[in-house]
Write a structure and sequence with these properties.
The chain is built from two helices and two strands; from the N terminus they run E-E-H-H. With about 120 residues, it is mainly alpha-helical. The protein has a domain at about 30-105. Strand 1 and strand 2 form a beta hairpin. Helix 1 packs antiparallel against helix 2 (about 75-105).
């Protein structure tokens, strides 16, 4: 039976059409459940690919604020709030893009802890 013989599927379809997995992340083993972990990781990457352009647009709009005619009329507190908001926006872009960057940079390298020769051995 699918789902480990319990009669229930290993993933349940939600009303959005996506799959909601029945196994908690803490119960997954990196060797035994490699396919499940990979599927969840690729799902996360797909969701991030959807979110990142929206965040980039919002940060882009924030970058245009200093060129507005009334920006100079803001007091120091208002400019500090703008600076903090812009900094947090840029940090969110970095945080959202980091998993994809790490995935691309590590896709050709072996898993940590595996016995293989690195580029230094060549």
């Amino acid at each position: 039976m699918p789902g480990g013989g319990s009669g229930y599927p290993s993933a349940v379809a939600t009303d959005q059409g996506s799959l909601e997995h029945a196994v908690e992340p803490e119960q997954l083993d990196s060797d035994r459940d490699r396919k499940e972990l990979r599927d969840r990781y690729y799902g996360l990457l797909q969701e991030l690919r959807i979110v990142v352009p929206g965040v980039l647009v919002l940060v882009g709009f924030q970058l245009t604020a200093p060129f507005a005619t009334h920006f100079g009329q803001l007091d120091d507190a208002g400019q500090a709030v703008y600076g903090a908001a812009l900094t947090l926006g840029v940090l969110s872009v970095i945080a959202l893009m980091t998993p994809a960057v790490l995935h691309r940079s590590s896709s050709a390298s072996p898993r940590p802890g595996s016995a293989s020769c690195s580029s230094v051995c060549r």
